[in-house]
Amino acid sequence: MQPSMMLIMNGVSVLIVWVGAHEVSSGRLQIGGMLAFVQYAAYGIMAFLMISIIFVFCAASYGISRTHRQSFRYRAGSSRPASFQETNQQRPGVVAFKDVTFAYAGADRPVLEHISFEARPGQTTAIVGSTGSGKSTLINLIPRFYDVSEGEVLIDGVDVRDMTQVDLHRKVGYVPQKAVLFSGR
């Protein structure tokens, strides 16, 4: 709406100047009167532009409020997987990737292929790579934002797919590079 309103505002200004120039040249109108008329027309059109912006914000607010209502109604499933396992208390905090391969749905080829490593508590484990190499995807496999296509992601010796969400969320703290609460749709 905003581009069309700006087009109308500028079109009306050009029309007023065009007609006003002919009136000024014929002596029926002074240039100050024409400029005042252009200014008043711009004020009127700007008011309509602001009204259109308010309508856009209202529509966006309605969409966001629907998303908020849905997310407040959402309850994380606390049911146990069929093969639920308790984590190994002898290995607290060990995260292991065993031959992990991951491909997004509909992708031609996997983003990650045959990744294996172990991250132990008290040691620094760095995930290094260029933009788009799958670093964030790799990390997002731990809290099960995505499930692996092949292989296993283990926490304390237990596959994350065999943990309840409650147990997994107690074990994993996730701080994203860019903190976003809602998508803004």
CATH architecture of the largest domain: 3-Layer(aba) Sandwich
Overall CATH class of the largest domain: Alpha Beta
Structural class: alpha+beta
Helix and strand pattern: HHEEHEEH
Q: What composes the largest sheet?
A: 4 strands, antiparallel
What is the number of strand segments? 4
Number of helices: 4
User: Kindly state the mean pLDDT as a whole number?
Assistant: 82
Any idea how many domains? 2
Principal-axes geometry comes out as elongated
- Report how far the terminal alpha carbons are from each other: 18 Å
Poorly predicted residue ranges: 76-80
> Mind telling me the CATH superfamily name of the largest domain?
P-loop containing nucleotide triphosphate hydrolases
- Give the radius of gyration: 30 Å
Describe this structure in words.
A hairpin with a 2-residue loop joins strand 3 (150-155) and strand 4. This protein folds into two domains: 2-73; 95-171, 3-Layer(aba) Sandwich (Rossmann fold). It has four helices and four strands; from the N terminus they run H-H-E-E-H-E-E-H. The chain has a four-stranded antiparallel β-sheet with strand order 2-1-3-4, with no helix packed on it. The protein is α+β, with helices and mostly antiparallel strands and 185 residues long. Helices cover 44% and strands 13% of the residues. Helix 1 packs antiparallel against helix 2 (31-73).
Descriptors for this entry?
elongated, Rossmann fold, four-stranded antiparallel β-sheet, alpha+beta, 185 residues, 13% strand, 2 domains
